[in-house]
Amino acid sequence: MKKTKFGLNIFQKLLLVLLLVSLIPLVSLWYINAKQARSDMDNYISQTMISTADTIEMGVNAWDSMNIRALRQVSRIDDMTSMQAEKQNPILKALTETYEYSFLTLTIGLNGDNIGRSDDKSQNYYGDRSYVQAILKGAKIGREVLLSKTTGKPSYVLAEPIRKNTGELAGVIAMVMNLTDVSKTIVDTKLGETGHAILLDQHNKVIAHGRADKVKTALQDFSNHPAIALDEASVKPTSYKDGDKNVLAFKRKLPQGWTLIVEQDYDEAYSSIKKMEAEARNLILITIALVFGIAFVVGKQLTRPINELTTIASELSRGQFDLEMPQTQRGDEIGALALAIERMGISVKMAMDRLRKKSAE
C-alpha cells in the first residue's frame, strides 16, 4: 500500500513564507529595541533614585552640619566652659530662640547632672542618655532620635563636648530639636504616584516616612522592612516582594548612622517599557492577522484556477472533451497551464478519433 506523503498545500506554503518574511525582521527589531530600551530604563531609574537620595542626603547633612557648627561655637564661649548655670542659661536661651525648630538646649556635667537649661525647668539627671555617654566616652558628636516628652513627636538630640582651654572635657552641651524640616524633606519627596522616601534612625526606627499610612506609631521599628536586608540595594535599585506587587528600593547609610530608603512600585517605574512591549505585541498580532488575510486572499486567487484546471484535466482523462477551458486568457503561468491542458485535450481527442476510425475499418 502506497503511503501518503505529508505535504503543505499552496495556501499553507504561502502563509508560512509570508509569516517568515514579515515576522522575522519585525520580531528581531523588537527584541533588539526592547533590550536596549530596558537597559536605558534601568539606567534612568537607577539615576533617578540615586539622584533623589543624593538630594535628600545633601539636605539632611547641611541641616545637621549647621546645628553642629552652632553647638561647637557656643561650647567654646568662656561662660559655657565655666559650667555655671547662671552664666550658661542666657546663652542657651538665645541659641534655642535662634533656631526655631529647637525647643530645649541644656548642659550636662561629667557626673551626668543637668546644669544649665534654656527653659528654666527643674534640673534632671541625664547621665544615662546615650548621647551623653557617647561624649563622655570620647566621641566628637553624640546623637539620638527619641520620642520627646514635651511634643510627643520624634525629636533629635545633638550633643557636643564642652572643653576647657586646656582641652580637658568639662561637660556636654545638647540641643533637642523637632525633626520638622527633615520630615518635610522626606514627605515632600515624590517619584511618580507611588515613589517615596523613608528615613530610619540608627536602630531602624522611623524618623520620617513619605507615606503616613505605613506608620502606625511614632518611631515605629522598621527592622523587618525588606529593603534593610537587601545588600544589593545599597549599590543599585533592587526589587522586593510586597504582597502581590514588586517594589524597587535603593538605600543609603547617612553619616549620622541613619538609613535612607527611596522606593517605588516596580510596575509604575517600568510602565513605559510595559506600554512599549504591549504595543509591540499588538503590532505583531496585527501583522499576523494581516498576513493570514493576505495569504487567504492570494491563496484563493491561486488555488481556485488551479483547482478548476485540475478538475478539467480529470474530466479529460475520462473522455469528456466538450468542456469550456477557463483561464486561457491569462498572461501568467496559470494561463500557460490552461493553454497546455487545452492543447493536451485536443491532442487526446484527435488520438481517440483516430483510434475509433481504425477500429471501424
TrEMBL record:
UniProt keyword annotation of Glycoprotein present: no
Gene3D superfamilies associated with the record: HAMP domain in histidine kinase, PAS domain
InterPro entries, A to Z: dCache_1, HAMP_dom, HssS/ArlS-like
Compartmental location: Cell membrane
Protein topology in the membrane: Multi-pass membrane protein
Catalysed reaction equations from the record: ATP + protein L-histidine = ADP + protein N-phospho-L-histidine
Source organism: Undibacterium baiyunense
Domain HAMP residue range list: 300-353
EC number, UniProt record: 2.7.13.3
Keywords: ATP-binding, Cell membrane, Kinase, Membrane, Nucleotide-binding, Phosphoprotein, Transferase, Transmembrane, Transmembrane helix, Two-component regulatory system
Name of the protein in question: histidine kinase
